[in-house]
Structures are given as C-alpha cells and as structure tokens.
Amino acid sequence: MTSVxxxxxxxxxxxxxxxxxETEDGTQADRPKKKIVKKRSAVxxxxxxxxxxxxxxxxxxxxxxxxxxxxxxxxxxxxLKMETQSCQKxxxxxxxxxxxxxxxxxxxxxxxxxxxxxxxxxxxxxxxxNWVKIxxxxxxxxxxxxxxxxxxxxYRMIWQEKAPCVVxxxxxxxxxxxxxxxxxxxxxxxAMVLMDGKLTVKITEAAKEVEQNIxxxxxxxxxxxxxxxxxxxxxxxxxxDRGVPEIPMAVFxxxxxxxxxxxxxxxxxAGIGRTGSIVGLxxxxxxxxxxxxxxxxxxxxxxxxxxxxxxxxxxxxxxMHRVLLALAExxxxxxxxxxxxxxxxxxxxxxxNG
Length: 354
Known about the structure:
Protein name: Protein CBG20279
GO molecular function: protein tyrosine phosphatase activity
Radius of gyration: 20 Å
Number of helices: 10
Shape: globular
Organism: Caenorhabditis briggsae
Number of domains: 2
Structural class: alpha/beta
InterPro entries: Oocyte-zygote_transition_reg, Prot-tyrosine_phosphatase-like, PTP_cat, Tyr_Pase_AS, Tyr_Pase_cat, Tyr_Pase_dom
Region (Disordered): 1-37
Mean pLDDT: 86
CATH class of the largest domain: Alpha Beta
Largest sheet: 8 strands, mixed
C-alpha cells in the first residue's frame, strides 16, 4: 500500500491574492493585527476558504443567546443531556471489546464507528472512534485518547484513513491522573515500532508552540514495504477536563489552520467533551458561512447522535455560545446586553474551572 499526499485545490471564492489587506481572518479579538502587503499569510488564506460569515445569521444568534441568558442556557443543556444520554443504538463492538474502551460508560455506537480494515490479515476491526459528518461528508473522526492497548489500533486508523492531522485536546497527565497514553516517540532520534514491525513511527519535526498553549509536531509513519504517510499533530495544552479554555477565539484560530484537512482525527481523553465542543463549533461556523440559522442545541443533538455523549458539561455548552459571541464581537456586533452576558458567563465559568 502506498500513500500519496495530494495538494488540495483552493476554493473558488478565495479573495484576490494581490491586494493590500489587513489579516481579518475573524480571530483578531484577542491578538494584535498585522499588516500584510501583497502576500497573504497561511492563516488568512485558510480563513478565506470558509467564505463570509452571514452577518444577519450571526446577529440573530447573538440576539437569541442574550435573550436566553446564561442560566437558561445551562438549564437547556441539562434537559438536552437527559434527553440524549440514554444509548439505545446498537454498540456491539463496544460491548465485545471492553479492554479497548478507556471508560466503560462512554459508548461507541456501531452505526458510525470507524471500522478498521487494515491490514487485511488482522481480524480485529474495533476502535473506540466515530465518524461525524458535516454537510453529509465525513469530516471528523472523534475518538478516545489512546490507551496502552490501543496505540496500534490508533495508528492503523491514521494509516487506513490517511488522516492529514490529529488534534489532541488534553495532556498526558491531568490533576495527577493519566488521561492519554503517549503515542509518539520520546524524541526526534527515537522511533516506535508497532504491530510486529508493520509500522514505524518517527517525529520529523519536534513540537513547537505556534499559538499560546498550542503545539505543532510533525510525524511520519512508514510501513514494512517502505510506504510513508506523514501527518501533523496539534496539541492544545490549556483546555481543562470538563472545563473550558480562557481564550475563546483560540478555537477558531486552530480550526482555520486545519480547514483544508480531511478527515481530522480529534481526541481528548474520553473523546466526547472537549472533542465534541470543537467539532460543534466547526459545524456552527460552516452554517454561518452558508447563511443558515445556528441553533447550538440542534447541533449538539446531531453530534450526540453520531458520537454518543458529545459535549459533556453545561460549561462546555456555554463555552460554545461564548465563542460565537466572541466571533460577533470581532465583527463589531456588540451591545450592552452582550457585556452583561459575558460578565455572568465569566463568573459561572470561574466556579466551574475551579
């Protein structure tokens, strides 16, 4: 099997290349602007591929969110969670392979699970991972953080799907507990040999901080026939378990960097809380750019239908609203009522993040 890295064609609606422009990629609310003459940065090019956010739909979202209020949104999530928490869909793979599940009460439903087909002589096709669609396309794979027993399967999945990037939203250790096994070599000089030599994993570029608390590392996988697949590994180190990050717009800056990638493998520890939140925000942004009404309750319900239990807490649900309000603020859509909402949000999140 060989791996071919194809260049993706830019979308037709990209802005012209030769204009003098500000880096208005929709993420400048919490960082200084830079002026670029004639040459656009990679982040700006990727931002352009989203298309324009529909201002009317964004204003409608802001109005509804502010009118609902922080407490009512939190209450809305509790009702949503109760409505969708019971897992009635078949989960045969999950039940048959308990040793491959990090948490026994985080279910992997059969309907959308990633089926491992490589290598053909391996009879085990199970990994705790589900496809999540955007506009009918398999854009995301949401999965649990690898355990010691599932690192091989994790790399089988990357290799099989030729995933161009992996997004890690947790740390190896959090509050004294292991949340994810380290699934990459200790250094650029080292290597991980998996599956009795079928795959070898190496770091080609050491991790570097490209945004505050966001690291980028480049990794290559080589099979026993010499074929190579390379991917980017992004780690967000400042998103607390069951909590939320302090900088809302950092989400969009990360998503903009990943925009052309597909499928994107996303994991935290369980692969539902932090993972579901970032996937939900991507879906919301796509809807805004398509001129569609954004109702986060419906988005979360849809994600939970594909990756059971996605978005675990009211804090994460509120954070999704706060991020979209930050997007509106960046587009100069503000009001005194929004300031009140943000103040109430900050007070509540301070108690949640401890």
